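**User:** Here is a favour to ask of a fellow structure person. Please take any protein you like and set down a full record of it. No explanation is needed for now; the record alone will do.

**Assistant:**
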Amino acid sequence: MVATRPWASRRALGVPLFLAYPVLTHVAVFSGLTYLASAAWLCLAALAVLAFPGRWGVAGSAALAAALLFVDAETLLKMPPIVINLALAVWFGKSLAPGEEPVISWFARLIRGIELAPDLARYTRTSTIVWTSFFLISAALAAGLALFASPQVWTLFANGIDYFLVGALFVCEYVYRRLRFRHHQHAPLLEVIRAVARARGLSPRRTARP
């Protein structure tokens, strides 16, 4: 119980910061209040410390905060939707390499606590491809809108529609899996979400079983 308290306290701080970031960004764009944009960026800086506790997290947070001295917050805020989506695409995509365990297969194995049946293993690999493609497309859209669209259109996608699409894909995939593989047992949706949250600090197997 004691070992979980640091993570629980970081989560208690991280959740409101994570939620405040897109809201502050969105309001800053539509209101023109630059201090709100700066506050949104500082939320990201604070999240860096919570996500990576220790000297590297402090250094990253300080670097992010210091960036405000050289670049205006409105410009800086165009970068996270691109970088985050690309990072997720790389993480999902590299797990598709030969000998690696696809990310969705890993999540499914953690939830079930056993090795996946062959049909589920094939499906979760395909699902990993879908998520990789989704994040790549999202990154490309975020970059294109940041460059060529108005700030208002950009923020509607980057700080609204993109989050909705992630949730919609997650729920739709879950529903499809339950219908397509009804002969397998499936955990409730809330348990799936909890399992994904608990996976922090873990990683897929380096070498997947054949």
